[in-house]
TrEMBL record:
The lineage of its organism: Bacteria, Bacillati, Actinomycetota, Actinomycetes, Kitasatosporales. Pfam families: PhzC-PhzF. This is PhzF family phenazine biosynthesis protein. Gene3D superfamilies: Diaminopimelate Epimerase, Chain A, domain 1 (3.10.310.10). InterPro entries: Phenazine_PhzF-like. It comes from the Bacteria.
């Protein structure tokens, strides 16, 4: 249990890392409020998400049907990748109901997967660079477009080096791992990818014949 300042009673908050690397490190931090009804209304949820400071916070409104509500520190999202992967893993659900649509989920050994449609993802600028070194040495750009910078590490093998810059000016200059951007890049390239993002996170993807994309990775519970 974690207490939220200014909220009545304890807040049931789990903290996860999603898309961890092979050694279990890295991954993008995610806050999941299991009892979303304890924080009612978009304004209150936005305030809490801003105070928690995660790149995304999920409010679970129905843990049996998988109804979820997703927020960054500054905006509500109809869909996001790492929140859906992490929440489906945490609640052990086969479906999540987001404002964008129904996201299916599955477990496969150490990897947790979701299937979603590229058109559900927020707009991202996919910016290709000539080499992984170029990506590694990028400076954080000023606030503006949400940029997914990427380069081939091994094109034949589908291995990609990527970094993500939200450009929101909300204190999160770089996202360590972003499923929605990986989903968009997969749809753009039309092939399965093994993405090394941020300091050492890993995201796996695969396009499906019906136009959906699978996104998967490792999830760890780091606090409750």
């Amino acid at each position: 249990m974690t207490s939220a300042t200014g909220r009545p009673g304890p807040l049931d908050l789990d903290v996860l890392r999603v898309f961890c690397g092979p050694d279990g490190r890295y991954g993008n931090a995610l806050g999941v409020v299991r009892d979303g009804t304890a924080v009612r209304g978009e304004a209150a949820r936005q305030e809490l998400a801003r105070g928690l400071g995660f790149s995304e916070t999920v409010f679970v409104d129905d843990d049996e049907r998988g109804v979820v509500d997703i927020y960054t520190p500054t905006v509500r999202l109809p869909f996001a990748g790492h929140p859906c992967v992490g929440t489906a893993w945490l609640l052990d659900l086969l479906e999540l109901r987001t404002p964008a649509g129904v996201v299916t989920a599955r477990q496969d050994g150490e990897f947790s997967w979701i299937t979603a449609r590229p058109e559900w993802a927020p707009d991202r600028t996919l910016r290709r660079h000539g080499s992984p070194l170029e990506v590694d040495t990028l400076a954080v750009p000023p606030p503006g477009d949400w940029v997914y910078a990427w380069a081939w590490e091994d094109e034949a093998a589908g291995r990609v080096r990527a970094r993500a810059f939200p450009g929101r000016g909300d204190g999160i200059d770089e996202d360590e791992a972003t499923g929605a951007a990986a989903l968009l890049l997969t749809a753009h390239l039309g092939r399965a990818l093994n993405i090394r993002q941020g300091a050492g996170s890993q995201i796996l993807t695969a396009p499906n014949p019906d136009g959906t994309v699978e996104v998967g990775g490792r999830v760890l519970l780091v606090g409750a």
